Amino acid sequence: MFRRRIKGAAQAISSTSKFKRSLHLIRTHRKSAPNLIPDILLQIFDLLTKPSEDDILFNLEAYPSLFSCLLVNKLWCDSAVQVLYKHPWRLHRLYNFRVTELAYDRCQLCRLYLTMLDRDQRRLLLEKGIILPEPQHSPTFIYASFLKCLDYGVMLESVWTVYSQSHYTYVPSEEVKLVIRALLKLFSNHCGTLSWLRFAPMSFSFDEMYFEILEDAEFNALLRPVEQLVIEANLGGCTKLFGIFASNFRNVRKMELVDLPRARNWQGDSSPKHMTDFVTVIESQHHLESLTLKECAGYLSSILCGVYSQSHTIQHLKFVHCDFRGCEPWTAIAKCRELVSIEILDCINVTGAMVQPVIDANFAQLKRVVVWNKVDPKKACNELMSWSCLFP
């Protein structure tokens, strides 16, 4: 009940026009600013950016309003800045606002964190000839302490971009690796643990050495508690990467795999070994509750075998823009008796024989089945569509 009230408050102030009028009144009459308990205010701001507990992604449209909240009063600023820096590596992609000390350009963000390195880390990097930005003044907040969600690929690209400005043609890999290690140590010392982690392709080629850093024992406390993991398959040929995932991230509750078709071309062949690597990542989890597959085609039968290994815990399955051509019957899904929801959106080549085991299964907890094919409604599986109608 308490959470529903907070969520209702978040939805009430999320309307752009009403929210702007409220801010105008607050700026005009500062004394009338709501004096909410900090924890409640923080939850409201957090719900503005992530309105649903089941959402892996974030509501980026809410961030401009949060920037306005920084200017209301100290209490609002203290709460809003925690949400803004909870997931800054994702935010800088779409917005480039500069409000007081907040600069979400990727280079500015990277430099901001580098100014917060402790004396030993700065000395170590300077001895290696790495140029570091000098802090102009003491930061108002320890921004690294607010980090809970890390887009690892974007962080790598940010560091590479910063140091490409001082190396006109070539950025030494070892230099980037040392800076990444220093940033991870900064996050480990201040934020404690991460809850969300994403790996995705970048605009420059990179070496596996950047990911081998994750195996260091000193970062176990930071990385191993990760509960939400997003992996995009086209990661530039890092064949060792999935072994790192399987051994270091075993407490994932929500996993999203994106763009599996490209995996078949990593080494110029269609070897299913890469699919085996994905299956290993799924099977290594202790308590996987939600799995989302997007833009996937080929070897989905192997992926579903990995789903079977989590049949005692998995509750939510979602397939988006998947091509099930040649896939075997969904017997593995039929064994997942704890399922609460199944979503099959814009998927193709789904046949009646394929889904029959799921239709015949007895899911005592299943409450939600969503099936649609807006891309080509005529190719939708009739048996699956009829079955979904049993779950209003």
Description:
- It is a single chain.
- Strand 5, helix 13 and strand 6 form a beta-alpha-beta unit.
- Helix 1 crosses helix 3 and helix 4 runs antiparallel to helix 5.
- 42% of the residues lie in helices and 10% in strands.
- The chain has an eight-stranded parallel β-sheet with strand order 3-4-5-6-7-8-9-10. It has a two-stranded antiparallel ribbon with strand order 1-2.
- It is built from 18 helices and ten strands.
- By secondary structure, it is of the alpha/beta class.
Number of helices: 18
Structural class: alpha/beta
* Strand content range: 5-15%
Strand order of the largest sheet: 3-4-5-6-7-8-9-10
Run of helices and strands: HHHHHHEEHHEHHEHHEHEHEHEHEHEH
Give a quick account of the main beta sheet: strands, pairing sense, barrel closure: 8 strands, parallel
Residue stretches low in confidence (pLDDT < 50, at least 5 long) are 15-20, 25-32, 92-104, 262-271
Mean pLDDT: 78
Which properties best describe this structure?
392 residues; alpha/beta; two-stranded antiparallel ribbon; globular; 10 strands; eight-stranded parallel sheet; 18 helices
